[in-house]
Amino acid sequence: MVILPLIISSVISALAQIRPSHAGRIGSLTVLYYLTTTFLATFTGIILVSSIHPGDPKLIDYIGNGTLEDTALSTLDTFLDQIRNMFPENIVQATFQQVHTEYKEVRPKIQKIGSGGNATNFTAASYMKPTLEHENEMNVLGLIVFCTGFGVILSILGEQARLMINFFIVLDAVIMKWISALMWCYPIGIFSLVCTNIVGIEDLTEMAQDLAMYVVTVICGLMIHSLLTLPLLYFIFTRNSPFQFMTGVLQALATAFGTASSGATLPVTFRSLEENLKIDRRVTRFVLPLGATISMDGTALYEAVAVIFVAQLHEIELSLFDLFTISVTTTVASIGSGSVPAGLDTIVLVLKTVGLPTKELSLLLLVDWLLDRIRTSVNVLGDSFGCGIIYHMTREKLDEADKDELVQQLKSEIMMLNDFDGNSPPPPARLNTQVSLTIPPERNNRKISGSTEEKRSLMDVSNEFHV
């Protein structure tokens, strides 16, 4: 309900307040950071699952009847879908639908005509034909690309686009005020979501015993990435305490755990970084929406562990080339997983790339509800650290942009909107303010229609009005 207007207003209002060259630098640093952390997360997962070796072939006997739908999709199809979604054909349609590749079975019919003119129909062997379909899910990546271009153009126009820039700034402030009121309901919603998943498990004890080592491996990998890799990167680039930074985003991490969605956590992450950690909103409003779409550190680590776990169930030895293929494929597949709660669909793509069976993934569905929430929290933490690093690296450029007169006026208006309290009355007028207006003597006469007088003096020579 609020994610769509929040993304549109935040991205456009942020980029409209910085120079185009600075926007390009922020964008390139953002993409580079997200790709680096995603690859590091994948590498951590591969090292950990190879060391702990949680895959026990005996677990195959405990697989239930549940199976995953087989698919002919490849990693290339997922990557190309992301490229197509970056440039939607219809921007209005992108607000509620996105494109994805779907394989459909085709059975061609062949007609053979005999010597007597009689036709005989035959059915040839079926094959899978790729088609482009639309699914009912918001195309966040396409909206971000469009809003990025829109905001940069507003920045180029400058004073000519002042009215439009003010509109998006006010819209952003309205959405954030609305979200502030809705956040009072967040604890109830988060508690309900978690309880629903726990109650739906038939035998929680048996599930914990069978997949204990697998769950421990994934959680250990996520903890190493969130408590060691990401803080170390933050400290190297900023020389500030990463753990003090983490305390400022605890509310966002709790929300991510409850909702299992980076996109649904965006409003809370905005407030945590801007109010608690004082990060420039021009950085957060661009970096976070993009990160909620393409930055999936926790998902990449989880997929790498799951794929190698399946190989261990079948006692399949993976070569170094296979491990490299898994690392690259999981990085690309995690980017295409989106910002909404996802299951194990992207892992199927990685398994097919390496040539591993997919039936055993039904076993992992038992614990996916828990691991999905933990890895989403890691995704949000990675996005937050990225904002801190990019803000530190671009602070000088942002300070240069602040010297622009238009940017100074816009920032003052934003501060006024943020400081405004709906319960407080507007500031009182100054009664002792004196405004003087002087009319030159040569202009103090005017003709009055329908009067016997041709001219009429308004006042004497001084012609001074005082209010």
Automatic annotation (TrEMBL):
It holds the Pfam family SDF. It is found in: Membrane. The keyword rRNA-binding does not apply. One of its GO terms (molecular function) is L-glutamate transmembrane transporter activity. This is Amino acid transporter. The chain crosses the membrane at residues 32-52, 138-158, 178-199, 211-237, 286-311. It comes from Acrobeloides nanus. Gene3D superfamilies: Sodium:dicarboxylate symporter (1.10.3860.10). Keywords: Membrane, Signal, Symport, Transmembrane, Transmembrane helix, Transport. InterPro entries: DAACS, Na-dicarboxylate_symporter, Na:dicarbo_symporter_sf. It is a multi-pass membrane protein. It comes from the Eukaryota. Residues 440-467 are annotated as: Disordered. Residues 1-16 form the signal peptide. Belongs to the dicarboxylate/amino acid:cation symporter (DAACS) (TC 2.A.23) family. Residues 452-467 have a biased composition (Basic and acidic residues).
